[in-house]
Every structure is written in structure tokens, then in C-alpha cells.
Design a protein that fits this description.
- With 462 residues, the protein is an alpha/beta fold.
- It has a domain at 91-106 and 226-422: Rossmann fold (3-Layer(aba) Sandwich).
- The chain has 19 helices and 15 strands.
- The protein has a 6-stranded mixed sheet, with helices on both faces. The chain has a 5-stranded parallel sheet with strand order 8-5-6-7-15, sandwiched between helices.
- Strand 9, helix 11 and strand 10 form a beta-alpha-beta unit.
- Bound molecules: pyridoxal-5'-phosphate.
- The site of pyridoxal-5'-phosphate has 16 residues, from helix 11.
């Protein structure tokens, strides 16, 4: 499989090259040149298989040519062995027709472990074969950073630098990033918000001297390998509720549009997904856009679902690419307009987006109310991001089609909001119960490209 850029100007790459690169050199994002399609029989045959086997069958067409069959099976096995649940992504029932897909059984208690644990193993195998090393720099609103650090710590071919907005991540998230003792792990608390961190990361990738000098690699949700890993649980969940013989819908708490874009690819691969519902908090650029108001940046307002406090959704570019008929020139132009605040989406592209996506926005009060209501009516204590999803899902539920809401984090990752809403303190799983005792290690740094690049150059291993 070849990979192409959404902006049409970067060279075609193999899966391995696209994974090691992250962002394309024309500023675009990599996508497979063709989306592989699974037949109805192939999808039906997934029912009842272990998660790892489903993962292999769904992802194989995307990676073949870069990895061997047995090699890839071993990578998948290692990626998910540290999960706290044999089903990896268990499905729970909330009411007659509404289900929760629990994606927080991995080592850092959020769905990002599904992709990051896989990417860690893929990088290790690829770099070992090449005799190479890379510097991974990631920007995080909280969960990506901890998942990346957990996936890459201790690997000798990799240094990991994680930029997070100082004072804007939860204490559990911060401690998951600042307490690993491995010398290849570097947590950087940036004086700015998440969009500043993400912008600094993009600027580093566009500084080719720096990029080549430190062998920069990105594992943010722009990395196609991350999107790929997330396609799998749409299949595992849908077949366990009767797909391909029955349609299902998904509601996805969304920030950078990575998780829900994986659902879009699952649909294009042949999975009978009826609706894909985008759920946002008060940082609602995606909801405004899908409501026909154009794609215009607002100010990021901190919320109790901080992993979705995003006003520029980087993976939305991928959805726009398909909505604009795979026209890289049109996407490059829109992204130029975005630098000056935003753009209106053409009527044809809006119609294409609406064929797959619905959307809704949830206020802070509604989030708290939904946590309380879900505990009272379904005996589930949910994290604030998941609550945003549940609320929007209930508004979009169609009685004939099961709705699956993605439970993106464990409630113990966001204990203050969960306790405020429900009166219950969500305990950490026992394997992490000493998190509050471990010493922290972090560098506070200005929101300044020069300062960041300088720090990274001085701290990579020789
Ligand atoms: C990252 C994250 C999201 C948003 O996912 P995207 O792929 O950025 O849309 C939602 N919930 C939690 C808990 C997250 O960590």
C-alpha cells in the first residue's frame, strides 16, 4: 500500500515511511492511496474472534509490504498484552439500545493506548531493522502524552519529548507523564494552551534543518498508524452487535477528529455504520462546522473534559480531503485560509460530510448531570469525555439501530469532575495506586519555538 498526502505535493511513501515521518513535507497528512474494502463474508467471519486476530485481519492490507505476517502478529500480541481486560475493548450495555465501548483498559487508562502501544512496537521493529534512531516529539492535551511515554519509555532507539500546557492537565495525567524514571523520557510544561503546543510541534516539523538534524518523528494523532489502530475496535464492537447483518451507529467524544476518523475509514471499508456522531464540549468548532457555520477558530476555553479542549482539529483535514473529492490543491488552499482564522466549506463538501457525520455540543453543566444520571440509571461511573458522548448519543439515538458510545477514559483519570458530579471518588486500578508517591521530573518552558528546539537538541542521547 502506498500513502499519499492530503495536500498532494509530498512524495508517496510506504506505510513504514509514513509512520516514521508523521506529517508530510507539504504540511499535509498521509492517507492510504486506496481504502481497502472487506467483503460481507470477511466481516461476518470476525465475530467471536480474539481482539488481536480481528486487529490483524483489519490492519493487514494497510501494512503488508512493510512488515511480515508473523512479525505483525507478534507486534499486535505485544501491544495489547499489558491491557487489564482480556476483551481489550469490552462492550457494556447502558439501556435497551445504547452501549458503551470501554477503551480505557490499557496502561494509561485512555483509548490512546490502543494506538500508542501498537506504534511503540512498530517503531521498535522498524528502527531496529534500519539500525536507526529517532526523536519523538508530541503535543498533548493530557492523554496522548502519557500514552506515548508509556509506549516508548526505555526504548534505546528513541527519545521522547512531550509538550503539555502547563496547569491545564489533570493531576493523574501530569503524574503519568512526569513520574517515569527512564532517561529517554522528557516532559515539557509549556506556558500556553494545547493549541500553542500543537502549533509549536507543527512549526518544528516545518523547520527542515531541525527536523532532519534530530530525526524528528511524530506520534500525534496526525500519524496514520494511530488512526489505523483505532479502526479495529469499530469492527470488534459492530460484529459483536450483529454486523454485517445489522447496522450500528457510533458516538465519539471528539477533539482532534482522530478517533472518529478511524470510524469513517471502518465505514468505507465496508462496515455497515449508519451514523457517526461527533460529540464536542464547549470547544465546538467541529459542531459549528457540521452545522453549516464554516470552520472558524475560536478561543480555547478550559473545560472538565480537557482532552477535547481543541479549536483546530488536525485530523479533520483528512475528512475534508474525501469531502472535497480527494483534491489536494483545494485542501492546501483551505489550510492556508485557516491560518487567517478559518474558511467556509463548499456546499458539495458539506453534503458529503453529512452523509456520514452528525454532531452535538454539551455544556459543562450537562456533562456533570450526565455523569450523575448514568451512575443512577446504568450503574456506570463515567469520565467527563465519555459523558459528553453519552449525552449527544441520547439526542441522536434511533430506536432501530444500536448506538455505541466510545468510553474514551477511565473515570479515575479525572477524579475531581467525577466526584463533583456524582459524589463518588473513582479509585485508580490497583496496578497504579502508588502514582501519587512517585517523584516527578519536568521542565517548565516558554511557548517559544527557539527555546523548545534548543532544549530538545541539548537533551537527545548521542
Ligand atoms: C484524546 C481524547 C479524546 C479526543 O480524541 P480525538 O482522537 O482527538 O478526537 C477524547 N477523550 C479522551 C479521554 C481523550 O484522551
Amino acid at each position: 500500500m502506498k500513502y499519499i498526502s492530503t495536500r498532494g505535493q509530498a512524495p508517496e511513501l510506504t506505510f513504514e515511511e509514513a509512520m516514521l515521518t508523521g506529517l508530510a513535507r507539504d504540511g499535509g497528512l498521509y492517507l492510504p492511496a486506496e481504502i481497502p474494502v472487506m467483503s460481507q463474508d470477511e466481516i461476518a467471519a470476525l465475530a467471536g474472534l480474539p481482539y488481536e486476530e480481528i486487529a490483524f485481519r483489519v490492519m493487514w492490507p494497510y501494512v503488508s509490504g512493510s512488515f511480515g505476517e508473523d512479525e505483525f502478529k507478534e507486534i499486535i500480541a505485544r501491544a495489547y498484552e499489558g491491557f487489564g481486560h482480556d476483551a481489550r475493548a469490552p462492550l457494556k450495555q447502558l439501556n435497551e439500545n445504547h452501549f458503551l465501548l470501554e477503551l480505557f483498559q490499557g496502561p494509561t487508562l485512555a483509548f490512546k493506548d490502543f494506538a500508542m502501544q501498537l506504534i511503540g512496537q512498530l517503531f521498535q521493529v522498524a528502527l531496529k531493522r534500519r539500525g536507526d534512531r529517532v526523536t519523538i516529539v508530541g503535543a498533548t492535551s493530557g492523554d496522548t502524552g502519557s500514552a506515548a511515554i508509556e509506549a516508548f519509555r526505555g526504548l534505546d532507539a528513541v527519545d521522547v519529548f512531550i509538550l503539555y500546557p502547563h496547569g491545564r492537565v489533570s493531576e493523574v495525567q501530569r503524574r503519568q507523564m512526569t513520574t517515569p524514571a527512564d532517561s529517554n523520557v522528557h516532559a515539557l510544561a509549556v506556558d500556553g494552551d494545547f493549541d500553542d503546543c500543537q502549533a509549536a510541534l507543527k512549526d518544528m516539523f516545518n523547520d527542515f534543518d531541525f527536523r532532519d538534524g534530530v530525526k524528528l518523528a511524530g506520534v500525534n494523532s496526525i500519524n496514520f498508524a494511530r488512526v489505523l489502530a483505532q479502526i479495529v475496535y469499530y469492527f470488534s464492537a459492530a460484529v459483536s452487535l450483529g454486523a454485517p447483518h445489522r447496522k450500528v451507529s457510533f458516538t465519539v467524544p471528539t477533539g482532534n477528529f482522530g478517533d472518529i476518523f478511524a470510524g469513517y475509514l471502518a465505514k468505507r471499508m465496508g462496515l455497515p455504520i449508519d451514523r457517526l456522531v461527533v460529540a464536542t464540549n464547549q470547544n465546538d468548532i467541529l459542531h459549528r462546522c457540521l452545522s453549516g457555520e464554516g470552520y472558524f477558530k475560536g478561543d480555547t476555553i478550559p473545560s472538565i473534559s480537557p482532552s477535547m479542549d481543541i479549536q483546530v482539529s488536525s485530523n479533520f483535514e483528512r475528512a475534508l480531503y474525501y469531502a472535497y473529492g480527494e483534491d489536494g490543491g483545494a485542501i492546501a488552499q483551505l489550510m492556508d485560509e485557516l491560518k487567517n482564522g478559518g474558511f467556509n466549506v463548499s456546499q458539495g463538501a458539506m453534503e458529503a460530510l453529512r452523509e456520514s457525520f452528525d454532531s452535538g455540543r454539551v455544556s459543562e453543566d450537562e456533562t456533570l448531570e450526565t455523569i450523575k444520571h448514568t451512575l443512577a440509571h446504568s450503574a456506570e461511573l463515567v469520565c467527563p469525555h465519555t459523558a459528553v458522548g453519552i449525552k449527544v448519543a441520547e439526542e441522536h439515538r434511533d430506536t432501530g439501530v444500536p448506538m455505541i458510545t466510545l468510553a474514551t477514559a477511565h473515570p479515575a483519570k479525572f477524579p475531581a469532575a467525577v466526584e463533583k458530579a456524582s459524589g463518588e471518588h473513582p479509585p485508580l486500578p490497583s496496578r497504579m495506586s502508588d502514582l501519587y508517591e512517585r517523584p516527578e521530573r519536568v521542565t517548565r518552558i516558554a511557548n517559544d519555538l527557539g527555546a523548545l528546539e534548543d532544549h530538545i537538541k541539548r537533551h537527545i542521547a548521542e
